[in-house]
Amino acid sequence: MTFVIRLVINAFAIWLASQWVSGIEIARSGEGTGADVLIVLGIALVFTAVNAFVKPIVKLLSLPLLILTLGLFTLVINALMLLLTSWISSQTDWGLSVDGFWTAVWGALIISLVNVVLSALVPDKR
Fold this sequence. Notes:
InterPro entries: Phage_holin_4_2. By secondary structure, the protein is mostly helical. Helices cover about 70% and strands about 5% of the residues. It has helices at about 1-20, 35-55, 55-60, 65-70, 75-90, 100-120, and strands at about 25, 95-100. The two termini are about 15 Å apart.
């Protein structure tokens, strides 16, 4: 159940970032709102998988930079994960397109803030 909640939070955060940042676009199907929601959930699934498997390795390898910048390099890592999600999802018909690195930084900042706020509202298992 926690995975589904995390997936929905990520989907909402990605959708919100695509609405607020002009360089982030989500491919629309043209078949209606239900199909668009499934596209956003598919992109969120890719984003969640990238954050679960790739991000810990990147954080471990960049540990000296994380210490040197007092954790601010995490924003760069989040932007890179968003760019990786964009690259993976662009290989399909439904995709996320991010124009550049600074667009990814702004999108990652929005996604991170939305994740923090919504995760605080969702009760934990404890």
